Amino acid sequence: MTDFTPAVLRFHDGGCATGSLEVISPTGGLLCLPKSANRGSRVKLMFLTQKGPVLGSAELLSPVSWTRQPFRFVGLAYGDERRLRAITQSLQSETPIQDVESSRILDGEQQWIEKYRAAMIHRNPPRRRLLKLALAALTLTAFGLSSALYLFSIHFK
Question: Is the dihedral of CA 110, 32, 93, 55 positive or negative?
């Protein structure tokens, strides 16, 4: 979308977040949020368009950055779906032919995003986990030895 489009998200636990809508399609879009939310979260999403307000149920997908998160619609009322289709069709008719080059750039960015996600899935576990495990074992050993010393000191008094 070309101009700033504020969006409001209402979570099932009652929480609320505000952001802006950057990309929209009949099936979903991309939100700019202050902080990304959990993947798979179901929200009520509301935003205003030139054709009127759109309110629907959406599922948040894996964030593509700290502040950008895609979503897909899982439920829209007929009137909201009609307004959404009207706004996306009007945006498509305004799209200049030069966007072919920018779509190639977006395809390259999409490949980079997929490569990054694959690397994050297959990364080695952090060493902090091993350090915490060693520290827990050391603490447990120290507690056991101190308990044994205490019991022997009581026994020999």
Answer: positive
CA atoms within 13 A on the CB side of 67: 8
Rounded to whole angstroms, how far apart are CA atoms 49 and 90? 11
pLDDT digit string, tens, across residues 108-128? 667 777 777 777 676 655 667
The CATH number covering residue 37 comes to 2.40.10.220
Q: Is residue 61 located within the same domain as residue 134?
A: no
The pTM of the full predicted model, rounded to 2 decimals, is 0.55
**13 domain-assigned:** yes
